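Checklist before submission:
- one chain only
- standard amino acids only
- sequence pasted in full

Submission:
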Amino acid sequence: MLRSVGQTPVTGSGKDPRTTALGVAVSRLRRELAGHPGHLPDQGIAEDELSVLAGMVAAGRPEVPRMRRSLLLIAGAIGSVSALAPALMQVRNAVDLFGEVPRQPR
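Returned file contents:
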């Protein structure tokens, strides 16, 4: 079962299941982007941001504001390529597991 922001890991391995879900989603989108038959004009941007997300997963310390920025850049780079939409949605859902970015007081 997934947990709320701020709680301790619930798996026996000590690994946060949200981080695992993000890693799986990032890997899937990377594979599908690499296998896409056409080259997208901003494909390099998407690949770079997927690397950023993969690095956060590997370090075990995802940063919500940076993840959301990466997600926006990836979505913008991929555009409306319907073949990649399910994998992109999986990444979005995995990022959403980490909750909202805390608002800064004005």
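Reviewer check: Residues 1-11 have pLDDT under 50 and may be disordered.
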